[in-house]
What we know:
29% of the residues are buried. Among the domains are: 1-47 and 145-157 and 193-271, P-loop containing nucleotide triphosphate hydrolases (Rossmann fold, 3-Layer(aba) Sandwich), CATH 3.40.50.300; 54-141, no CATH class. The protein is elongated. It is an alpha/beta fold. The protein has helices at 2-11, 31-45, 84-94, 111-123, 128-135, 165-168, 173-179, 193-196, 212-223, 247-254, 260-264, 277-288, 302-314, 325-332, 342-350, 362-374, 385-395, 405-434, 438-456, 474-481, 491-507, 518-536, 548-565, 569-584; strands at 20-24, 53-61, 67-71, 136-141, 151-154, 170-171, 188-189, 201-204, 226-227, 235-236, 240-245, 266-270, 297-298, 382-383, 461-462, 469-470. Helix content is 49%, strand content 10%. It has a five-stranded parallel β-sheet. Strands 3-2-4 form a three-stranded antiparallel β-sheet. It has a two-stranded antiparallel ribbon with strand order 6-7. The protein has 24 helices and 16 strands.
Amino acid sequence: MKLVQVFKAAAYRYGPEKRVILLHGPVGSSKSTIARLVKKGLERYTRTAQGALYTFDWVMNNENGTVEHMPSPMNEDPLKLIPLAWRKKAMEELNPERSKYPIDVRGDLNPHCRYWFDFFMKKYDGDWAAVVKHHVRVRRLVFSEQDRIGVGTFQPKDEKNQDSTELTGDINYRKIAIYGSDSDPRAFNFDGEFCVANRGIIEFVEILKLDVAFLYDLLGATQEHRIKPKKFAQTDIDEVILGHTNEAEYKKLLGNEFMEALRDRTIKIDIPYITKLTEETRIYQKDFGLERVQGIHVAPHTLEVAAMWAILTRLDDPKKHKLTRLQKLKLYDGKTLAGYTQDNIKELRKEAPREGMQGISPRYIQDKISNALVSEKGGATHINPFIVMNELDSGLRSHSLITNEDERDEYRNLLSVVRDEYADIVKNEVQRAISADEDAVSRLCANYIDNIKAYTQREKVRNPYTGRDEAADERLMRSIEEKIDIPENRKDDFRREIMNYIGALAIEGKIFDFRTNERLHKALELKLFEDQKDTIKLTSIVSSVVDRETQEKIDVVKGRLIKNYGYNEESATDVLNFVASIFARGDAKG
Length: 590
């Protein structure tokens, strides 16, 4: 958002167009990806009608009767051919009143075009119209990084093998013999990165690693929009200067008093790591999804738990709020938490301004997932969250960016938090798979609705077995409501809320469906699970002896995990064994 705002202000010529736009952030935070996508976006935009750009060629009539087209070497705007004395009036005629983006042209032609402009003006005794008619051809300009048109990239190399002519162009010594002087613009190659990127964008890779000699060129290119080619006057350019750097290099810049001029001409845009779980997970799904990983099953939640751990390492502990880091992660991801609003989330972000500027890089996660996929220990058929978490843990010992033992211990503790959260996730899935009998849930719901209707309207409920009218079954109602933490003093409000919702649907001619109420649906499933878990005897999975009836029920649950949750036979068995071991330890509370 901040980057787009800078671009927008620069488009209006409010000042940012005279600055270096510096993307700053930790390693692997997608700085170069953003730069690459901006360049690709510009290339694509110039191919559209809306983004049409134009430049011109000089048309030469040779002595042998042939016609030669000589392109403007810096893809100049054809409007620069309008003499300075005429421009103000020309712009007034071209621009309608109060135009949002008025047509504007600034600066003079480059030395090569100035030479030919002056040559033809003398030939036609100052008749500008004749020069333009006979020797100028306007053509469409389409950017291409591959062809070095409108998009330039500059990367620091060895100081001994690189000089500033790579930015501004160099003399063509072969043509000096033809034209007789090294200051003749026809004997100069305007092919430096600043020249080829004119009218477009130049990317400086690791900009703060540049030698001081390059920074001098950079200072003039930003503030004055001018470069100084060898042997020629200052030449006007018009382009976006986009650089990126990591935090260590930026701190070095801040500590260098000789770089004040560059700091003053820089707009820093922080590019932190992602702190939203669903977005971080998408990174790994892109690399390790079904389309990319063939022949190996990636069990559900494998990528999610890796992303969860990465984000937990990037978050700060909440200061003012009674929250855990995991709860903070869920709030950032759009989950609801009782007592917390969007304003609270904004406050959490404000109190941690450097959040996302440290922590584990997505590259580390990608490396460890790929290790798990090819590891013999991981097996050739599937990987699961525990295999990946073990890889993440073992890799911390040799992580090149972690030098502090306390930091390493903190990251290991966060892995324990993720393991506990994963256990809760799969317990819930198995519970839902066990209680996935829609008819049974529907019957339980109807029974619950009958009872809360009788309770709220102070009526009796007919017992289907005895045929007698009885008071509402408080034990049944509370056994369901307690599953979603409805306290005793809030039960009346919850019951009235359900009845009001049913009444509102009835007015609209609609029938109540428990699936539309997420909290009630969850409560019914948990209640049904509690009623059924003893008959399924899930804990018997850990035993070597399972009777046929229990095995059939387990197979049904396994089938639901495969069909509804994305498991395969092997990973579903792993999850059932894991959850069974939890229940076997007596840790059955979901």
